[in-house]
Amino acid sequence: MSTASDIEKYLSTAQIQNWRNSDLQRYKDFCLAEFLRDQSSQVSSTSDPQLYKRQEAIWELFTSECVYFLDQLMVLKEVFSATLTNLQTANCLIDVDSWRLFANLNELCLVSFGFLTNLLRVIGDTLEITEGGGPTLPELLSKAFQESICHCLQKYCLNYTTALLYLDSLKAREDFGSYVKWCERNEQCRRLQLRDLLVAPLQRLTRYPLLLRNIAKRCQTEDESGGLQAVAEQVDTSICDLEGKVKWLDNYQKVKQLRDALVWQPVWERDKRAFVPESLKHLLKAVTLENLISHRSLLHEGKLVLTENTKLVDVYLFLFDEFLLITKIKRNKKRSMGPDQNPLRVPQNLELDQLLKEGCTFTVLDQPVSLDRLQLRNIDQLNASTSGLPHSFIIMHQNRYQQCIGAFILQAASESAKRVWISKIEGAVTALLKLDSEQPRVKSSSLWLESSQI
C-alpha cells in the first residue's frame, strides 16, 4: 500500500496537461461586441437592436458553458481524475474507486465540448460569419438537451451523494489527503476545492432553464420563442424527474440500512406469557425484515422518551407510510459501521447516522402499529404538568374489534418537536386512509398488512 511520501515523491515530477490553448478559451472572456469585432462582423447594437439583444442572450449561454467546460469540468478531469489515474498506474491509491468520485465525468466533458462546438457554429450562421446550412438554434438546443445533456447530467447527479460521502471517508487517509492537497494547490483550480468542483454539474443543470428562457424572451418570432420555451420546460421536467429519483434512492438506502439494524424478537422473548418448547420453536415462522420494510417509504424518524412502568426509556421511532415502529436503542460499541456501508445516505438526521455508525441496533417493541389501527391523543399542557410528563402524547394501538391492545406515552424534547411528530403521524394516517378508500391493499407475500376493513 502506498504512503503519503510515495504520493509526494511521484507528484513532485508530475505535470498537468494544458487544455486551454483553444478558441473556446479566447472567447470565454469576450463580450459579444468583442467577438463581433474579432470576426469582422457588421452586426452591432445600433444596426438591429432587437437582434443584438437576442444574440447577447445566446452569447451568455455560450460563454457560461465555456466557463463550465474549461474552468470546472476540465479541471476535474485533468487535475484530479487524470492525476489519480496516473498515480494508480504507478501503484499508488490503487484501492480508490475513481467512478465513485467522478462518475461519468469523461462523458460530461465530451457532451459539453460537442455542445459548445455546435453552438459556436450556429452563432456564426446567425451572424452570417460562416456559410450556414447547419441546424437552427431551436433544432440544436432541442436535440442537444433531449439526446445527451439532460441524460448524462442526471447520471452524474445520481452519483453526487455517493461522491461526497466517499470523499469524506477517504480524507482521513494521509496518502489520499496528500493527493487532494497537491491537486487543490494547482493554479488551474483557482482556489476551488474538490468539493466545489464536484457540485458544478448540479449547479449547471439548474441554470439551463433560466438561460434558455432568457433567449426565448428575445426571439423575433413566436415559433422560435415557443420552441425554446419547450426546451426549457424539457429541462425542468428532467430536473423534477431527477429529484424524484434522488428521493427514491435516499429512501431505498435508508430502508436498506435500517433493515440491517432492526431487531425483531421472537414471540417467546417479546411476550413472557408465551411458552414455546425449544423443540417446537422451529415451527414458528421467523419474521423477515426484508418483507416488513423493503417496499415502504420512511416518512419521519427520531428519538423520544417512553414512559414504561415507573421509568423513562429512550426509544427511537420510525414512521413508515403504512405503520409505526417503536424501538429500543441497544448500543454495541464493538460493532461499527464504516462510511462505505452507506454510500448514498444523505445525512439529514445526524443523530440516527451517529447511532448507526456506533453500531447501535433497534429492537422493535411489541409489534408494528398499523396506521389504520392507530389512535393519537394529545396531552395538553395542564395535564402534562400535573402528571410530570411535559411535551407528551399518547399512541394507542387498536385491534380489528376496536379494542386497545397497546398504549405508549411518548415524550418529546420540546413542544415544537411534539407538534412535528403529531403532524407527521396525522398526515401519514390521512394519506393511508385516503389511499385505502381509492384502492384497498391486496394481500401479497411482501406487501401484506392487515386492514381495519376486515
UniProtKB/TrEMBL annotation:
TM region positions: none
InterPro entries, sorted: DBL_dom_sf, DH_dom, PH-like_dom_sf, PH_domain, PKHG5/7, SOS1_NGEF_PH
Molecular function GO terms recorded: guanyl-nucleotide exchange factor activity
PROSITE patterns: DH_2, PH_DOMAIN
Annotated ranges, domain PH: 297-430
DH domain span: 53-245
Stored PANTHER family: PLECKSTRIN HOMOLOGY DOMAIN-CONTAINING FAMILY G MEMBER 7
Name of this chain's protein: Pleckstrin homology domain containing, family G (with RhoGef domain) member 7
Organism, scientific name: Sparus aurata
